[in-house]
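Title: Comparing notes on inverse folding

I've been comparing how different people in this forum approach sequence design from structure. To keep things fair, I'm posting one structure and asking everyone to reply with a full sequence. Here's the target:
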């Protein structure tokens, strides 16, 4: 077992972390946009076939940790105001 990381390994790890961070930002933007959209919808305004998909999306958003949801909303400069 090695106790040190070689420069090539460090470079590969850095590249992978940067890729993962870009993917996270993209996913946060998608999630923030979806959360903003769901917050504005009323199920009565949706076609019946879309209600199930909207419910699934809302459940997925609600299952996120609060900090992640806040990061997602910040990624799209959105704020959800409870009425």
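Reply #1:
Here's my take.
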């Amino acid at each position: 077992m090695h106790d040190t990381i070689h420069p090539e390994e460090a470079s590969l790890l850095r590249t992978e972390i940067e890729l993962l961070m870009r993917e996270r930002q993209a996913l946060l933007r998608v999630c923030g946009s979806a959360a903003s959209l769901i917050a504005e919808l009323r199920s009565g305004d949706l076609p019946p076939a879309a209600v199930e998909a909207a419910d699934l999306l809302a459940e997925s958003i609600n299952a996120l940790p609060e900090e992640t949801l806040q990061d997602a909303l910040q990624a799209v400069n959105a704020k959800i105001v409870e009425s």
